[in-house]
Amino acid sequence: MQLTHLNTRGEANMVDVGDKRETRREAVASGRIVMQPKTLQLLTDNALPKGDVLATARIAGIQAAKRTHELIPLCHALALSKVAVDFDVDHANGCVHVSALCRLDGRTGVEMEALTAVSVACLTLYDMCKAVDKEMYIEAVQLDSKRGGVRGDYQRGLPEPIVTGGSAVGEVRLGERCASPCVRVKFLAELREQIEESDMSIGLDQLPSRDVAGLKAALNAQDARFGVLSDQRTLCAINQVMANDSARLTDEDEVAFFPPVTGG
Amino acid sequence: MTNIEATELDISVRVQQVPFAMDEGYESVLHQRSDIGAIVTFTGLVRDFNETPDVTGLTLEHYPGMTERTLIQIGEQACQRWELQAVRIVHRVGDLAPGDPIVRVLVASAHRREAFQACDFIMDYLKTQAPFWKKEHSRHGAYWVQERHADHQDAARW
């Protein structure tokens, strides 16, 4: 795993996202501010000196999300399509839970925006209540979930998925765009372990013939470990539909190789 | 978790990491209708013995997108062969322990014979066509489960 914000010399570096494909990105973050029960009561009764605490904190969170790039050095300026900040007043635990959802059709993730919205909403809650309570503290600011993007979805609490690829339902993931016509190749399950590779792309002009057999031949010429692709047991799918050696390949096709299935 | 539904035919399939309830699917199938005469369900569980006698766990991998599409197609084929009112398929992926449910198929029909046969058919096709792969963990190490000839013979019955 490489840190994308560092260049090869280890210096801070803004990632060039120009070649990434636009996808629907969504992130949800949450956090909480813990306060004394009587402060919380004043907040719910709208009796704090600075007025409507939650409405102010909501606007602050939304504004902050839009200005994340001004605060976090290597963040891109994003045209968010949606920012929603929500509060859940928890009298039992003496705190306000804050959550923020950010959405964008674009080329970068929006988790920094969601985290910034939560952080600033929490800070605003602190500011609005600090006249009556100095003991408040902000905690557990975290990313809860993230959707879209080449690295796949994330959901806090779920073990790291063992699934391959990151396609949403019923769609074929195209991933990063190649500069010249190419096919994307995936190796699944046991094949991935044998080949020690999960995803790669190869230019169409490198194939001796523009079909699955040609792809196998080109890979074989690259490295002997791809020999397993010619094994009779090895199955192939183009754009998630089963295919044989003579199936034609075109630019941007997703070709997956995998062993016989063993589900159920 | 992914969830897709086919139009017209009442088929829904889901691939998820989290466990499913043992009565999964009943409510959505029976909701506001009384023309269903039979519901047959199959639940597959992780055995503590399979290729080795001491399986301690299982990791299930799949091919997102293709998996759901294949399951929908299997459901559609079942609906073409038998008079069915609803099909529900839930399959888990990720890390599972012995005793954990892996797969659940529910078939609703006016008559029991259709439901029994369709459920059997769906499992046979799922095992031989849907892109899932099992890696078993045992006290002697981990290995990928090999496909079984018997499963293909079973699927060829239909």
Instruction: Specify the number of helices of chain B.
Output: 4
The global form of chain A is elongated
Structural class of chain B: alpha+beta
Order of helices and strands of chain A: EHHHEEHEEEHEHEEE
Subunit structure (chain B): Heterotetramer of 2 MoaD subunits and 2 MoaE subunits. Also stable as homodimer. The enzyme changes between these two forms during catalysis.
GO biological process, one term (chain B): Mo-molybdopterin cofactor biosynthetic process
Protein name (chain B): Molybdopterin synthase catalytic subunit
Pfam families (chain B): MoaE
Topology:
The complex is a heterodimer of chains A (264) and B (158).
Chain A: E1 23-34, H1 37-44, H2 53-66, H3 68-71, E2 82-90, E3 95-106, H4 111-129, E4 137-147, E5 154-155, E6 182-187, H5 189-195, E7 199-203, H6 212-222, E8 235-238, E9 241-242, E10 254-258
Parallel strand pairs in A: 6-10
Antiparallel strand pairs in A: 1-3, 1-4, 2-3, 4-5, 6-7, 8-9, 8-10
Helix pairs in contact in A: 2-4
Chain B: E1 2-5, E2 11-16, H1 26-30, E3 38-45, E4 55-62, H2 66-81, E5 84-92, E6 94-96, E7 101-109, H3 112-129, E8 132-138, E9 141-144, H4 149-156
Parallel strand pairs in B: 2-5
Antiparallel strand pairs in B: 1-2, 3-7, 4-6, 4-8, 5-7, 8-9
Structure description:
The complex is a heterodimer of chains A (264) and B (158). In chain A, strands 2-3-1-4-5 form a 5-stranded antiparallel sheet, with helices on one face. In chain A, strands 7-6-10-8-9 form a 5-stranded mixed sheet. Chain A has helices at 37-44, 53-66, 68-71, 111-129, 189-195, 212-222; strands at residues 23-34, 82-90, 95-106, 137-147, 154-155, 182-187, 199-203, 235-238, 241-242, 254-258. Chain A has 2 domains: 23-149, Alpha-Beta Plaits (2-Layer Sandwich), CATH 3.30.70; 182-258, Beta-grasp domain (Ubiquitin-like (UB roll), Roll). Chain A has 6 helices and 10 strands; from the N terminus they run βαααββαβββαβαβββ. In chain B, 30% of the residues lie in helices and 37% in strands. Chain B has helices at residues 26-30, 66-81, 112-129, 149-156; strands at residues 2-5, 11-16, 38-45, 55-62, 84-92, 94-96, 101-109, 132-138, 141-144. Chain B has a 5-stranded mixed sheet with strand order 1-2-5-7-3, with helices on one face. Chain B has a 4-stranded antiparallel sheet with strand order 6-4-8-9, with no helix packed on it. In chain B, α2 packs antiparallel against α3 (112-129) and α3 packs across α4 (149-156). Chain B starts with a strand and ends with a helix. The A-B interface holds A 158-159, 161-173, 186, 188-190, 193, 237, 240-241, 256, 258-264 and B 2-4, 17-18, 44, 59-66, 68-69, 91, 93-95, 102-103, 123, 126-135, 144-147. Chain B: It holds the Pfam family MoaE.
